[in-house]
Design goal:
Cathepsin D, subunit A, domain 1, 5 helices, Retropepsin-like_bacterial
């Protein structure tokens, strides 16, 4: 026995479909204008010698860039202008087989006080496909930060891009479009 859909049943099925139409997914004129302005800004910055690195946003709002140290696999680094220094975790230092040395200093950050600060020698810091010379990176235990990320359902980070690196590379963050512009000096 063959069953055919009746026209009235077909109309009911179509009406039951979500009201998200293709037209709803088209960008608004304002969004198109903003995208064009962002593209023009990006082109102008690249003409001025800036490189660009993509950023992703965590649910917490933190911006994350992929970084490679000494040619490593990509690692997650939070961009944190409130951090005075660029750093990696002790676990990252061990995984990269870096030799850490105690600096004799301590650091305090959000949720952590009296954190031991070590340093490690590195040969390159790669971001946005650009390998940049960098001789030393700090090694600080930020497990208290990663614990909060994990509780929030996020992946832990391997390091932080701090204001020292941002200043040295004249970083401009395009938060709306998820990208970081920097001078590869």
């Amino acid at each position: 026995m063959r069953h055919f859909l009746r026209p009235s049943l077909l109309v009911c099925l179509l009406l039951a479909l979500p009201q998200n139409t293709l037209a709803d997914s088209y960008p608004t004129p304002a969004a198109i204008k903003a995208a064009r302005a962002a593209d023009a800004l990006g082109e102008q910055l690249e003409e001025m010698g800036y490189a660009v690195a993509p950023l992703t946003r965590m649910r917490s709002g933190h911006l994350v860039a992929e970084v490679k140290i000494n040619g490593s696999e990509p690692m997650r680094f939070v961009c944190d202008s409130g951090s005075g220094a660029t750093l990696i975790t002790p676990q990252t230092s061990q995984r990269l087989q870096l030799q850490s040395e105690d600096t004799g200093s301590t650091a305090a950050g959000v949720g952590g006080q009296g954190l031991q600060v070590d340093s490690a020698e590195i040969s390159s810091f790669q971001i946005g496909g650009k390998a940049l010379p960098m001789e030393v990176i700090l090694v600080v235990d930020i497990s208290h930060v990663n614990a909060q990320f994990v509780v929030a359902g996020e992946q832990p980070i391997e390091g932080i891009i701090g204001s020292d690196w941002m200043k040295a590379h004249q970083v401009l963050l395009d938060v709306a479009h998820g990208r970081m512009f920097f001078k590869p000096i």
